[in-house]
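fyi for ur records
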Amino acid sequence: MNDNRKTGQKNKTKMLALSSCFVALGVTLMYFGAVTNVLDLTMVAITSVAVYFAVIEMGGYYPYMIYAATSVLSLILLPDKFSAAAYLAFGGIYPILKEKFEKLKKPVCIFLKFLFFNVAAVIVVLVSIFILHLNTDEGIPYYIVTVALANVAFLLYDIAMTRMI
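which gave:
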């Protein structure tokens, strides 16, 4: 019985260490995206892959822990907060929700995925405009077109993640 407890503790330690590595990798990638200011959303998508792996391989509370730690550290450390806001609103939590959505019937799954994405996109746009004061000169039509194009990118992202999994 003592060996089982040691094995369980060893497994938890390995999972925690792997989670910490995912967080460190995620924050590093997000920082690179924030500094280049061109790859910010690309790095959000790439960083979300770490959460996908955690959902698939680790399960339990580990994906939530990776999402929360990466979000908090990104908000604190990144010079440009847009990518941190995008990760917080969408990129980090979507892999966890995707697993839950895909257990439902296909039409409901698709509806919930796009509903979540559009709510997150609108939140990111509103935070960018009213809190971070980013890109306020373009006007509302610019943001409508941006969100519409983002839906196409989201569809491609979702298909790519499904095939990767």
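The chain has a mean pLDDT of 87. thats all i got for now
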